[in-house]
Amino acid sequence: MSDSYEYILKTEHVSKRFGSLEVLKDINLAVKKGEVICIIGPSGAGKSTFLRSLNQLEKITSGKIFIRDELFLHRENDHTVDKLPKEKQQELLLEMGMVFQRFNLFPHMTVLQNVCEAPVVVKKEKKEQVEVRARELLEKVGLSEKADEYPSRLSGGQQQRVAIARALAMNPEIMLFDEPTSALDPELVGDVLNVMKELAESGMTMICVTHEMGFAREVADRVLFMADGIIAEEGTPEEIFTNPKVERTRNFLNAILEA
Amino acid sequence: MKKFDFKKYSKQIITAAVIIVICIIFAVLKPAKDELLSRTSPAMQEMIAADENSTRKRVTVTYNDLLVINYVSLSSSGANVMSEKYVGLLGSVYSADEGGMKVVGQMVNYTYRMLGCGENLMHGAKLTILLTTLTVIFGVMLGTLLALGKISKNKILAKISSAYIFFFRGTPLLIQLFVVYFTVPGICGFAWRDLFPASDAEAVYKGAFTAALIAFALNSGAYCAEIVRSAIQSIDKGQFEASKALGMTYGQTMTRIIIPQSVRRMIPNVSNEFIMILKDASMVFAISLMDITTISKNIMTSEGSYLVFIPALVIYLLITAFFGYIFDKIEKKFSVYE
Amino acid sequence: MKKKVMAVLCAAFMAFGLVACGANEGNTDTANTDAADDTAAESTIDISGVTLMSDGVLTVGAEVGYPPFEDFADDGTTPIGFDVDIITAVADKLGLEVNIINTAWDGIFAGIGVNYDVACSAITITPERQETMLFSTPYINNYQAVVLLADDDTEITSFNDLDGMSIAVQKETTSDILMSDYKSTGTIDVQIVANEKITSCFTQLQNGEIDAVVVDSTVADGYVNSSDAFKIVYKDTEEPEQFGIAISVDNEALQTAINEALAELEAEGFIQETYDYWFGSVTE
Lengths: 259, 338, 284
Hints:
heterotrimer; B: alpha+beta; 12 helices; C: alpha/beta; D-Maltodextrin-Binding Protein, domain 2; five-stranded mixed sheet; 8 helices; 14 strands
């Protein structure tokens, strides 16, 4: 893969409408390789929708998405104006791993099978090789002894760490986290955040939608505050958390910190 | 592969062993066929001897062997009607012309006929089981394709699947059976039995069975489609999203992720469908095949014996119990992860 | 818009259906008048010694629902058929009206002399029955017949020639019992398929599923006459079944009168004519 690009991921004027409801309004974001971006904001702000638009789980209404400076998709008024050929799109999408709020592990497969499934089926890698890598990843998220368990036997925190390992098994360049700790009991949140922290430190490009302000403050290179479908404020964690310029941001942070 | 847990099943094993031992004792002590035949009256034996060189034979000799008990019936047709019946049990031969032994003899004979012993594969309980099992297998496969068609984004495919399901659920199976067996070959100019070699004496039954299987599978496919569709749609949307996020195609998602999870959810409904087909299998009377129900009805009308329905019920219950057990095992196998 | 079109179509379809039903009823009426005209004749036979249920009326028991012997016309209430025409003509000869009482086959004999004077319902004359009731002379002979496709050159001169074939019979009929007997005694090896309806047997023959149909000659005559596809290749005249009118055992006078009437009808050619009308073929 050539590294001769400026932004690993970029959006221009991305909008999304569900019927008459405008969920995303003109979102512009450019992400450099290795950056860790946290998106915070009240619920209903469009954070998840934006994240899901990036890897095509949602179709944007209009705007452009670039991956590695290549125009991945350009849509206007719910019509595709321009896009990469399907195979190329598929290839680039594999560079994005995603972790869901509700884990979405495959319940009929063991932990190890969950991690190995996509590399074997999608990338046609040799099963033996994938298994070695999968065990390493499980070791990394601290679950090597659970390899042969079914997901239903695992706690929420353990399941989410398996989900991270599963996404990592595809060797993505970017990891998208959609509120990865919101569905967890408080005592289980720490383990997941630790794994994410390690991942960030290893140089992974990450975009996290999160309510964990401590995590955002510590790990993020940049924090986006979204409200009502727009990026209301953007800056370093320092700027956002200690000296927010926009009133909405201030109110939101006050409400969170008081709670 | 897990080791078989003997302790867990000790009761069942002991019961099975006792039954098998008793059966063996009965089977060994059962008189031989010749012993039963040797009891026949001289007049009957004379008639049998006369039949040897006759072009129109008169005596029907029926021998039914049901492992633990056997039964012989000799009867002559024509002006000189004679009838003798014997039951062989535990080393003795009993005359079964009247009284309790007559009932026993009838039961052996009815059971033997309904099980389809001594007949081809397309007869009696064998037919019922074969047709029902194959119908469910093909029905589920066809139903899965139809369900995928119906929920597919391809509008033409979805319309075709919906129309198919509407048609086959909206018309009676009996008429579909008639159409497949009578109408289609009539229009297209072929015969079902020609699918089999002309030298095959049973081709006529095999042909009818093929037609029945096609009609039943086409019909069952429509019902299974709804079962599969509701099972697929009961799977959490997150499973589709996770698969897509991992780069899996629609086909991979369906075959690797969604359908395996749906299997467990469709088993109870497929099991119901199985029992429905088991009962519907009696419709094959319409195309000259005889399943358990048809045979028992025939015996009832020709012999006027209502006793025939008792072994019929027992046979049906045994079949239902056996397959219920199988479905239970399949369901357990597919729900290990829960 | 689409829905409206559908509604109009449905309405039109149903209206057509109703009109069609009405038309049928009309046809039935004319058919009945014709039949009545045919049988009009003068009484010539003396019935002074005959006792009847009710004066001037021959009360007849029949299981209506066995075409073409007896069946209801399309109106669902008027009995028609071969037996009906015969017994009406017989009554006419005796100067009597006919009153047909529809009765179940089971118990039809118990009603003779109790609920009706005679039973005329495709009843086979058998030695057992002759012990408990009187029979008229046979008015029709029925044989077991073998029907093949018209272009089939197979020669059948006895039932033994069916060896190795696949044949169709109607379930629980004389044909079924006879063929099953041939098979179970080991006389011939034959694959028998038994159907609820005789029509299925002929469709199977036409489609080539089976080689031959074994059936009552009366029915066979009807089929062969109405279709060029079939031919009768063998009739088992050795063991004919004869149909007679069953009469109460103590009513010999009525038996004599009926036999006289039948003899006259035979001589006039009425029986043959009626047979041809209902079965469409010549029989011995």
